[in-house]
Amino acid sequence: MKKIFLLLLVIVFTFVGIKFYQSSHTKKTDSLDQYFSIIHNNTERRYRVHIPTTYDENKKTPVILNLHGGGGNIDSMADMTGMNETSDKYGFIVVYPEGTLQKVLGKSLGSWDTGMIKKIITVDDVGYISAVIDDVKTKYNIDEARVYATGISNGAQMSYKLACELSNKITAIAPVASQGAFTTCPLSRPVPTIHFHGTEDICASYNGGLCGGCLQKYFETLIGVSTADTTYACESVPNFIEKWVKINNISEAPKLVLEKDTARCISYGNGQDREVAFCSVGNMGHAWPGGNHGIVCEDADSKKCKDYIRVMGNTSNTISANELMWQFFSKYSL
Fold first, then answer.
1. 173-191 burial, b for 16+ CB within 10 Å, e for fewer?
2. Per-residue pLDDT tens for 213-228?
3. Domain ranges across the chain
4. Distance of alpha carbon 308 from alpha carbon 306, whole angstroms
5. Could you give the CA distance from residue 38 to residue 131 in angstroms, rounded to a whole number?
6. Rg over CA atoms, the chain
7. Residue 329 pLDDT more than 90?
8. Over pLDDT 70: what percentage of the chain?
9. Close Cβ partners of 103 (under 8 Å, ≥ 6 residues apart)
10. 102 FRET partner, CA 20 to 30 A, in 4, 37, 124, 165?
11. For the segment 63-97, what is each residue's pLDDT rounded down to a tens digit?
12. Fold of 2-180+189-329
């Protein structure tokens, strides 16, 4: 019981800091973001929308769904990825759905039901996200043929699940820092995919073996008390990509499409409606290429930041996931 209480305190104080940061460091591009709620399966759930500065209500506008990782929320995801700035640059709408919130001493920690055997929660997140898309189109002039999904970690797993189960609404996906966690994938059509992963990621292990448990390791570092094991067996990222290529019914060998410093992108089925691209980033851990570590590293010299990086690994600016995924998404429509 003492272990649980101490862990909850660490989580709460961590997220209290995030809330303070968000309320006092709001970026100009975030200031007009809208928050909405819908009722799905008798539960009220919210989402956040960023409308680009060039939005024209008379023109259909593409949408990117940006899914936070486990323990995150819609605001932390916007801050970490910088997707709003990319939205303003290219003119797409960003929608931040929010996972099921677990209340911990009044603070909200979100996660997704991604289909893994070792479940965090059991809810209909595919149905919720489908309902979010339907709700957004009642408020804005969206291009329903160009709705894309991305996410990090637990959110990346959810992106794969959406491809498997909601391909009638999801045009293409861009998972970051996690293999898919599904046990079956009833894919009704090929879903173009670009996957980003750090070669030094031990949280969603690039080399496979055991995945998960990194947040727990970080909290243990902070409080010096061991917590429950949350790791699970996973295959290597290259092996998972090969499996996804087969699911997408691609038979061609990969082609090198980008090489920059430690980053390397290959493409299977390049130019086809089922393309799978895979970008590996050397020396990067469990992170968003071109993004940041968020509030925990606002002070890069702080102990909590150094401990976080020690567990999660480094970020990298070698490539921008935002830029590359938008280039990729722009090629595809339903």
1. bbbbbbbbbbeebebeebb
2. 887 787 777 767 676 6
3. 2-180+189-329
4. 5
5. 8
6. 19
7. yes
8. 85
9. none
10. 165
11. 999 999 988 889 989 999 999 999 999 999 999 99
12. Rossmann fold (3.40.50)
